[in-house]
Amino acid sequence: MHHRDQFIFHKLYKNKNLLPHTGNFSSCWKNCDGSFRKRRQDYTPTHKMEDQDDGTNTTSAVMAAFKSFQLELDTKHDKYERLVKLSRDITIESKRTIFLLHRVTSVPGVAEVLAESEVKLDGVRLKIKQIAEELRGQDLHQYHRAFTPGIQEYVEAISFQHFIKERALISLEEINKKLIFVKDNTKEAEGTSSESIQESREGAVYFQVTPTDYLLGIADLTGELMRMCINSVGNGDIDTPFQLSQFLRQIYDGFSYIGNTGPYEVSKKLYTLKQSLGKVEDACYTLRVRGSEIPTHMLADVFTTRAALIDPDEGIS
């Protein structure tokens, strides 16, 4: 036995309180051989004591504060999920309205299509009213990402309908006027001045489309106008493509003034907008140069083929 080990064992033997509670010295020596500090008493688990303490801390101020935080976060998450679901419903109904409006190029009764689209948009506005009720007294920007896809699709649908009616671009103020709901839940306040709008807001539920959502919805509108152009040519309408070309050029010029100074999403939409404008201008060029050479029923196929040949990697000048 090493001299140091003998000395340690001797000290432990003299102070019997330090020895493990064993029946013989051999087992004691095995437990103390070089690791006497690691006795079983030093490694008693403490989680049982902590579990007992947890029951006594439930009424503490810290636990009460965290429970209130939990309740607040759960409430916000539930509201966010409800807004996401409403946004999905708005997107679906708005897309159906857009598909319906594309029928104006192939049916004689344009008024009937517009009336049916107005009924669908009324249903969409009821969904937007539910969003407004969810956001009452809340910060809109905390939940903006939950419902912005649906609002953009609604702006696209209502601007498409307005263009078919008026051959002009709907303004942000006109869109927001239709999103003011009075108390009886059956009518909408559609004032003609800012004073009447302010009066109708008192005691009413209203929703305001943000400028960013408006711009993104108008950028998506250009794709629908490009499809309308191709459908019009296929049905023998030669005048509509030239009207759409001028209208899209004005929209592109307006977005060009914004450039990279606007929101990031707007700059991304600018490339798609330029592609739509290029396809419409290419269709107008074909009509002007080769319109008399190509039969009317073949014009749409020619435009579709030429649009597919446009370089998709072409940058923005």
UniProtKB/TrEMBL annotation:
Principal location class: cytoplasm
Metal-binding recorded as keyword: yes
Subcellular compartments: Cytoplasm, Perinuclear region; Golgi apparatus; Nucleus
Biological process (GO), any one: cell differentiation
GO MF term set: metal ion binding; RNA binding; RNA endonuclease activity; sequence-specific DNA binding
Role description: Acts in combination with TSN as an endonuclease involved in the activation of the RNA-induced silencing complex (RISC). Possible role in spermatogenesis.
Family in the record: Belongs to the translin family.
Oligomer and partners: Ring-shaped heterooctamer of six TSN and two TSNAX subunits. Interacts with GOLGA3, TSNAXIP1, SUN1 and AKAP9. Interacts with the homodimeric form of C1D following gamma-radiation. Interacts with TSN and C1D in a mutually exclusive manner.
Protein name: Translin-associated protein X
Species of the source: Lepisosteus oculatus (Spotted gar)
